[in-house]
Amino acid sequence: MKVHAKFYAQLRDAAGCSRVDIDLDEGATISDLLDKMYVKFPGLRVHDKSILVGAGLEFVDRNYQLQPGEEISVMPPVQGG
After folding, report:
1. What is the pTM of this model?
2. Structure confidence by residue, pLDDT tens digits, 31-61
3. Spatial distance between the Cα atoms of 41 and 59, rounded to a whole number of angstroms
4. Confidence class for position 77, pLDDT limits 50, 70, 90
5. Other CB atoms closer than 10 Å to residue 10's CB: what's the count?
6. Which of 20, 47, 67, 78 is the most exposed place for a label (fewest CB within 10 A)?
7. Containing H/E element for 3?
8. Is 81 inside a domain boundary?
9. Contact criterion met (CB below 8 Å) for 15 and 41
């Protein structure tokens, strides 16, 4: 299945792009997605502990099971001001 990932802020810079389509096995989770992205974009791995992931309008954890065609947001920690 294919999912669409969008990168924000410094993660977009680390990946060198703002969006990528990733092919994964059915039943894949956010952890599987991140592992595959770290291979493709090694500069993202240093941000692993602080990455926030959203599916639709909700933040999701790394056990979240992905759906085909889903759009995933990959973000740095939210900062307020």
Report:
1. 0.92
2. 999 999 999 999 999 999 999 999 988 999 9
3. 22
4. confident
5. 13
6. 78
7. strand 2-7
8. no
9. yes
